[in-house]
Here is the input.
Amino acid sequence: MGFLQIIGAALCWSLSAPYVKWIGLPIPYLTSIRCLVPTLVMGGIIYSNLGIRRIFTPASYGGVWSWHTTMASLFNLVRSILYFWGFSVLPVGHAILLIYTWPIIISLLNWILFKERLTLFQWAMAITALVGIILIEVQPMAMPTERVILGSIGVIIAAMCNAGMILTLQRTPQPISKTEQVFIQNCFGGLVFLPVFLRDVVNVSPVRTGISIIMAVIVGVVGFALFFSALRKIPTGQAAILSYIEIVFTLIIATLFLNEHYTPIQWFGGFLIVLGSVGAQVIQRPMPR
Here is the structure.
C-alpha cells in the first residue's frame, strides 16, 4: 500500500510542470494560487485541531516558530516562483531533471556550512550529476541558448532553495508535524502573493482559475498527503528514492502531450543526474521535496 501511495504522490507532482506549460497564466498568479491553497487547507486542519496558536508561538515559549521556520518559508517562496518560471521557459524534461539535483546540493551545503565530511562516494555522485547537467545543456533542444541558460540557472537556484528549506526544517528547535511543515512552507508565499491573487483574479478566466486551484490541491495537498501517509508504512529513505518516479511520469507526459523530444546525449545526461541524486539519497536520506 505504501508503494502505491508513493506512485500516486509522484503522479500528482508530475502534473505540475505540464500544467504550467498548458495553462498559460502569469507566473506570479500561478505562484499565488500554489502557495495560498495549501496554506488555507493545512491552516484549516491545524485550526480545527486547536493548533494554530502553536504555529506562531516562538519556540522559546513552547511553540514551533523560529528563525528556522522563517527561513524555510522564505526559501520556499523563492523556490516556488523560480520553479514555475523555469518550467515556463524550459522544456519540461530539462527542468525536472535540474530540480532533482537538490539531494546533491544538500550534501554540498552540509559540507560547506556544517563541516560534514563527504565520502569519496558522495563526491563521485556530485561529479556524476554535474556531468549530467552539462550534457543536457549541450544541445538546447531548439530553444534560444540565452533562454535555456537563464531558465536553467533559475531552476538550479530553485533546487538550492529547496535544499535550504529542507536543511532548516531538519534543524527546528521543536518537532513539527507533517501538516505544520506544509503550512509553514507555504504561508509566507501565500501572504506575499495574496495581493497578486486579489489583483489578477478578476482579469483571469474563472475556468482557468478553478483549474489552477484544483491543481494546487492535487499537487500541494493530495500529493503530500499520500507521501506522508506512505512514510508510516515504508522507510523514509526508500520512499524518497521511490519518489524519483516523478521524473519518469513527467518525461512520459512531456513526450506524449507536449511533443518534447530529447537527444540520446540528453537522455544519458538525465540518467547521470538521476543516478547522482539517488546515490546521494542512499547515503544521506534527507527529507523529501
